[in-house]
Structures are given as C-alpha cells and as structure tokens.
Amino acid sequence: MFVSRCLDVNSHGHLTIGGCDTVELAQQFGTPLYLLDEGEVRRACASYRESIDRYYGGKGLVAYASKALNCKALCRIMQEEGMGLDVVSGGELYTALSVGFPAEKIFFHGNNKTPRELQEALEAGVGQIVVDNLTELELLSELAGGQGRTAEILLRIKPGVDAHTHQFIRTGQIDSKFGFALETGEAMQAVERALALPGVRLKGVHCHIGSQVFDREPFEAAAEIMVQFLADIHDRWGCQLEMLNLGGGFGIKYLSDHNPIPYGQYMEGVSRVVKEVCAQRGIATPFIVMEPGRSIVGAAGITLYTVGSVKTIPGIRTYVSVDGGMTDNPRYILYQSEYEALAANRADQPKDTVVTLAGRCCESGDLVGEGMPLQQVRPGDLVAVLSTGAYNYSMASNYNRVPRPALVLVRDGVPRLAIRRESYEDLVRNDL
Ligand SMILES: *Cc1c(COP(=O)(O)O)cnc(C)c1O
C-alpha cells in the first residue's frame, strides 16, 4: 500500500511510522517534522552488507554516503552497523569524528577540497582521500610531506558510463566536473603521477555513475571498465591496486509505480563481472566498496506538515499550504522531484482530490509537489510527504529565516530526538 514498509495506518486512521502514531509525534515534537525509521535504516545497511558476504566472500565494505543525511546520531548508527562513511566536506568529516567514527573507514570525496580540509583529513588519519584532480594530488603530496605523513588515496575516474539517460551511454561522458577521464589518457597519467609522488600511497580507484538509477546494467558496465583499468595499471606499472570503489546511486521508491530491485542484486551482478574480468586479465580480485546514500535513508523518512490555508481556484487548482516547503525540501524546486503525500490524521480515507502542495516561502516556485492525489484536507490537518529521508534535511536552508525542523528517529514504537528544532536564537547566533 505504501512506498515504504515502515509505514502503516492504525485503528484511529492515523499514519504510523516505525510503530509510532504520527499525530502523537506531531503533538509531541511540533511540525514541520522529519521522521526517520531507524529499523528501516539498519535493515538497508544489513542488506548491502550481506550482499557483499554472499556474492563476494565478504571482501568489501559498504560506505554510507552521508551527504544524503549527516548528523551525529546517524554516524553512530553507521558505526554500530559496521559501515564505512563517505564525507564531502570538512563539516561532514567533523560530525563523523565528533562521535568517534573510525577515520580509517572514511572516504573523503569532492572536486574542490580546500587545503584546510585536506589538512584536517590528514590529521585525522582518514583512510581514503578520493583525489579528484592533479592540483589536489600535488597539494596533498606537499601537505602530507610537510606533516611527515602518507595520505592513502583513491583516484576518481570517469568511467564514461552515463546512467542518467534512459539508455545509458558507454562512452563520451567526459563532460563532468568530477574526476579523471579514461579515454583521453588523463586517468593513466594521474596514476603515473600518484605512483611517483612522495607523501601519497595509491590504494585504488573510484567511480560514481549517477543517482536514482534503477538498472543493474550501468553498474556492471562501470565495474567492467574499472577492472579493465586496474588490469591496465597492473600491466603498465606492475602494481596491483587493492581497492575498487564503485560508488552509489541505487534507486529508491518515491512513487508507488517505482520498482527498485532488491539492493543485493547490484552486488550479485557486479561481483560476477569483477571476478570474470580479473580472471581473464590475470589480476587478483580487488576489495570492493559500495557507497549507497539515498537507498539507506530515503524511504525510511517522511516529513510531517500542518496544513494552513486551503485555496481553491475554480477550474484551475487547489493550493494546500503547509508550514514548511523549499526550506526543508528543496528537491521539487531543484529537480521537480515527485513525492507521494497523504493526510496523516485521516490516512484511512480515500485520496479523492488532487492538489498542489505549497510551501510557506515568498517564492511562487516554493512547492512540494503539483498534481498530488490527497484526501480532502482542512486547516489544522497533518500532511505527510513520503520518502524524504535523503537529501531533505541535508539540503535544508534558512531561507526567509525559517528555522530548520527537528529530526526524530523512531524504532519499534519509540521516538528519539536526533536533531533539535532550530530556534530564533539559533538563527541570529552568528549575526553581529
Ligand atoms: C552522492 C554520492 C554517492 C551516493 O549517491 P546516492 O545516489 O545517494 O546513493 C556515492 N558516492 C559519491 C561519490 C557520491 O557523490
């Protein structure tokens, strides 16, 4: 019935998540409110982990891409789940380290890490700095040398697989701000430089082909290209790089007609390809890293809003305005992302209207969605927007000086506050 199995409807007709009544949660914590089912998050981690055990003899690591949602509570959960962690900024790194997340299991990504961020990563002993370009490579070598350290690095490669098109393209995807291109020879030159420079140790290669991808084929194509590259490196320089990081991007269910494959299936296909190519080319199988972000937290989260005004423009549309919008979920205004919504306090009733769910900001484009089926709602009703666990809190802003909502974790009927709601004092804290 729902896009996520952590959702249900109780005998009061109220939507529940992780066994908690959303109407009670709204009363207790206020709205707008982010809710995340911790059990669902842990199950997603386990299914990726198990797929590496099952299909690849456990020779791998699942690193949660924390830009999807990064906070202390989630970093602790990832540590407990034995996951690695992707960070893309000093702030995400700081959050992870502040709860004692093991630095050796961290991957530091980004196409323009600042010298200070690189310094911080070196000082923390980050296990994998994913180097994006030659400027960064030279800088890192210098910084590490200056500290008497050796940076463990991966190189970010553009494998030439564009998973965003309907029929994914195998070549020609060199127009990206991220990484070294394979087909121009740039990637091999970067390998040569990394092998020659002091202060860095080349541990492996990395790629990330896109996001919200439903097919297995682009991942298998990228895996094949990357293993061929590892074999080319072996043939040319006589060195066997130990790590192959194949990125994330696995699709999730936003709408009822989205049908993501079980997460384990990606690893099934990828490990088969990797083993085959390694055998053909006579190299040892690498340690594989997968980096799911959206598919760990996305479907486990919902956002609760309170309805303010309901404005019907005859013959045009009905605007249902809620107490949040682009400040807590900018994905519609950024990408016209589609979501499902329902009236959380009358979730047992049929969705017999179609509405435009509008945010509260002074911006006509501030919508949560258009053409959304919804129950008849009145001012004071609660609306839940589903599958908002990823790239919502982490993309939230204070536009119009709207404080960010709280984030509550729910598990087996018990709520736990993970991030407090911002106050007006928080908004002016840095104002002079
Ligand atoms: C964003 C990102 C991911 C995660 O992507 P999802 O679509 O959230 O799974 C993984 N790796 C890298 C390098 C990324 O930039």
From TrEMBL:
CDD domains registered for this protein in UniProt: PLPDE_III_DapDC (cd06828)
Keywords of this entry: Amino-acid biosynthesis, Decarboxylase, Lyase, Lysine biosynthesis, Pyridoxal phosphate
A Gene Ontology BP annotation from the UniProt entry: lysine biosynthetic process via diaminopimelate
Pfam families: Orn_Arg_deC_N
Domain of life: Bacteria
Binding site residues for pyridoxal 5'-phosphate: 249, 291-294, 391
Active site, per annotation: 362 (proton donor)
Residues that bind substrate: 294, 331, 335, 363, 391
Cofactor dependence: pyridoxal 5'-phosphate
PROSITE patterns associated with the record: ODR_DC_2_2, PROKAR_LIPOPROTEIN
Reaction(s) the record says it catalyses: meso-2,6-diaminopimelate + H(+) = L-lysine + CO2
Transcription regulation is among the record's keywords: no
Annotated pathway: Amino-acid biosynthesis; L-lysine biosynthesis via DAP pathway; L-lysine from DL-2,6-diaminopimelate: step 1/1
Keyword Oxidoreductase: no
Residue ranges of every copy of the Orn/DAP/Arg decarboxylase 2 N-terminal domain listed in the record: 39-297
Gene3D superfamilies (alphabetical): Alanine racemase, Lyase, Ornithine Decarboxylase, Chain A, domain 1
Gene Ontology molecular function, alphabetical: diaminopimelate decarboxylase activity; pyridoxal phosphate binding
Subunit details: Homodimer.
Function: Specifically catalyzes the decarboxylation of meso-diaminopimelate (meso-DAP) to L-lysine.
Family indicated by similarity: Belongs to the Orn/Lys/Arg decarboxylase class-II family. LysA subfamily.
UniProt cross-references to NCBIfam families, sorted A to Z: lysA
Protein name: Diaminopimelate decarboxylase
Organism expressing this protein natively: Candidatus Anaerotruncus excrementipullorum
